[in-house]
Every structure is written in C-alpha cells, then in structure tokens.
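Progress narrative, Year 2. Work on 1D-myo-inositol 2-acetamido-2-deoxy-alpha-D-glucopyranoside deacetylase from Planosporangium mesophilum advanced from sequence curation to structure prediction during this period.
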Amino acid sequence: MFVHAHPDDETIGTGATMAHYAAAGAHVTLVTCTLGEEGEIHVPALSGLAADQADQLGGYRIAELDAACRALGVTDHRFLGGAGRFRDSGMMGLPTNDHPRAFWGADLDEAAGLLLEIIREVRPQVLVTYDPNGFYGHPDHIQAHRVAMRAVEMAGDLAPRKVYWTAVPRSVLAAGMAQFAESSDNPFGGVSNADDLPFGSPESEIAACVDGQKHADAKLAAIEAHATQIPPTSWLFAIAGNFGSGALGVEHYRLAVGEKGSGSGEYGWEDDLFAGLDTASAGATPAAAASA
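Result:
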C-alpha cells in the first residue's frame, strides 16, 4: 500500500516500485489523500481550471491519475475518504492551509480511521509513505505521514509488517547536482552541497533499494500523464533523456517499522520491500500472495 498526498506524487517518488510489484503480480493499492486542487497548471489551455478561477483542477487531475495508474499497471486506487473529502492545502504558510477541507487541518484520528478501513480490507504486508517531514516539508505530505503512521498504530494485529518511508541517498543527490550543474533547468538551483538540501538521507539510514529499471518507460508514461503538473521542460524529462533508466527506475526507502530483511552491497540494502516476510502464506506464488 502506497499513501501519497496528491496525484503525481505516486509517480515521481515511487512509480518504478509500484510498476515493479504490479508486474510481479503483487496486489498494489494506492491511496491518494487529496485531489491536488492547488497545483500549478502547465497547460495554458487549461489555466481556467485554477483554484482562483473555475476551481476544477482537482477533478481534472482524477483523470490524469487514472492514466498514470494504467501506465504503472496499478488497478487498485482510492482517494482517502472518497474523492474530494480532503482538499490540497497548498504550500506551507499559505492561506489555503486554513481552508475548511484542507488536509493539513484534518482531524488525525478521523483521517487515520478512513485509512484504517482500507488497511482492514486490503491487509497490506508493506506500507510506503513519507518521513515525518513529508520528504520536503509540504503540509499535505507531512499530514499523509501522520495519518499513515496513526492508521498503522490503530490497526493492531492487522497492521502492515513493514512500513517504509521514501528517501533519496545523499550520494544520489550529489551525483544529480554534478550532472545538472551546467543545465539551464537545474532543479537544485543555487545549492551546491547535498547536505544543504531539506531532504536526503545518509546511506547508512537507507534500508532498501528497488531496481525498477525495467519499468522506467512505464514511469515515464505516468509522468507524461500528469501533464498539468509536469511540463515537457521538466528536469524529470531531462533525467530520462540524459541519464537513462537507472535515474528513473531505481528508488530508495528507509525502514520505519518492522525487521529488515537480508541485503547486499556495501550498505546491505534490501532489494525487495518484502524481504524477510512470508509472502507465500496465502498459498499462491510469492508475488501473487504479496500485498503492498
């Protein structure tokens, strides 16, 4: 189970992992907490959908998310509490944080209870969400973390056996900085040291590295599906064009709950989020029996 804040977050952060497990036959559930109503619009013809105009961007992004899920092979997608139950809060400190339906202001136990219902239905063995800072500090990402972790706590014996937080090793960030140093579309701006970014984890804190390079094209197609949010000039397309499947298809995670399985390489990273779990207990093949 993947718990994300807005449409497109699932693709950017975990798209290759989702496609990897969906292709392997695992039951992959995506829970998105808002419709992303406050997102930017990079398609000029759709500018009228903006929150300060028709306020229809959220509805449009449902279709984009559907297309992205098809590209990734994910067939089980839900909005937390139903589409539109919680609204995109916008960036931290904006007046949109105070909207009556803003996810940032949602009652924690109420929202976690809605996620708990899905956990009880799906019975995921593994849950993936953000770290306590929401990876980069967006209020909805932080709230998604809080809701997911509270739901796991409330689930008791039905809780996922392992919970992972999305992560990027500092060495990967440093390599990206070097690659984009001379680029006009440098996503790192004026930052030259990976330690100065509000995200990035020491290699020793990373528990798993999922190699989804075979599904990099699926992730790229899902990125393209989120056209209102990710313009053709985005650094994501630059990564795909210049650095190949490894840059898009390899995703890293920190283990927050559960026992780390066997790993390999310099840091002993797992290559499977189900490492150490009995995925064949349902009597099917390991991949088909797993639920994420």
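Strands lie at 2-4, 29-32, 76-79, 126-129, 162-167, 208-211, 250-257. Residues 93 and 139 are 9 Å apart (CA to CA).
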